[in-house]
Design a protein that fits this description.
The protein contains eight helices and no strands. By secondary structure, it is mainly alpha-helical. It starts with a helix and ends in an 11-residue tail after the last helix.
């Protein structure tokens, strides 16, 4: 099947509007790309992992940091703000793993210590949009490096 966002172009426009809004939320571009890589790793979305990896490289991200995004807790390369964003990314992406408890307060509080309400809104919307895209791509078995929506 073709990617549903291409079959229903208005859906793609909606997704693009969400992404545009998140990029205007005051969160550093590199942080948004790290969020994109991590959510996509969790969801097994090859096209999104590759896309966010490439965008991160364009924005100046290092190979070293990108190589260890999946193990960010054990790597010394990330700022406290980035760690808070990555923890929030994991918590939101894995909501079902916590039997309805939502995002733990300590994870939310850590993110709120580094980001204001506008930035947190951008981060949450970015994570949600990524999860939408990841689920679409995984469902239709979109190929990394050769996406039908490109």
């Amino acid at each position: 099947m073709k990617n549903p966002a291409m079959v229903l172009p208005e859906a793609m426009k909606g997704i693009q509007h969400l992404l545009k809004a998140t990029n205007q939320g005051g969160v550093p571009q590199l942080t948004l790309e790290l969020i994109g890589v991590r959510a996509s790793q969790i969801n097994g979305c090859g096209p999104c992992i590759l896309g966010h990896y490439q965008e991160a490289k364009k924005a100046g991200e290092t190979e070293e940091r990108l190589a260890v995004v999946a193990a960010w807790r054990e790597a010394p390369f990330f700022t406290d703000a980035e760690r808070a964003a990555l923890a929030l990314t994991e918590a939101v992406t894995r909501l079902a793993d916590r039997s309805g408890d939502g995002v733990p307060d300590e994870i939310w509080d850590a993110a709120a210590a580094h980001y204001d309400e506008q930035q947190l809104s951008a981060i949450v919307l970015m994570i949600a949009t990524l999860n939408l895209f990841n689920r679409i791509n995984v469902t239709v078995k979109e190929e990394a490096g050769n996406p039908s929506w490109a």
